[in-house]
Design goal:
two-stranded antiparallel sheet, 9 strands, alpha/beta, 5 helices
Length: 158
């Protein structure tokens, strides 16, 4: 499982990146985990499902019908934004695509939990004026998928 995080509202370009990420993850046998709503989440699920892959949506509310139409397995948590920690921890790696403050919180939860984090046009961090190199930067959707799957495989082997 690879978690993909990003804004519930996104640009057409960000949606295209997310859809490509979803499609490539599915083609390589990975299951997509996300927050299950719109924007980047919907686009990554659409890409994955159209390529025959599986999608899990960890929803903030209690209604499974709130999931985007591409979520195969909606899991209502009733936890609101607190479910962001679950999304970040569910995958063997996390791919962050663009996003706003919800995405920022998921990135922080991934870093706290030492889940490998791949960034694609998203937040950048610095501590005491020095760039935080724990967020691995991807140059493209394909690069993000390749990096995420490589670190996920390494984690599974250990």
């Amino acid at each position: 499982m690879i978690s993909v995080i990003g804004g519930s509202v996104c640009t057409a370009e960000e949606a295209q990146l997310a859809e490509t990420v979803g499609r490539e993850l599915a083609r390589r046998g990975a299951t997509v985990v996300c927050g299950g709503l719109g924007g980047v989440m919907e686009a990554v699920c659409r890409g994955a499902r159209e390529a025959g892959g599986h999608t899990i949506g960890l929803l903030p509310g209690s209604d499974p019908a709130a999931a985007n139409p591409w979520v195969e397995f909606p899991i209502p948590t009733g936890l609101g934004f607190t479910r962001n920690a679950m999304v970040a921890q569910a995958g063997r790696a996390v791919i962050a695509i663009a996003g706003s403050y919800g995405t920022l919180s998921e990135m922080a939860f991934a870093l706290i939990g030492e889940v490998p984090l791949i960034g694609l046009g998203t937040w950048e961090f610095a501590m005491k004026g020095e760039p935080d190199r724990r967020v691995v930067r991807a140059a493209s959707a394909l690069d993000a998928v390749e990096q995420a799957l490589a670190v996920a495989a390494a984690r599974t082997a250990n």
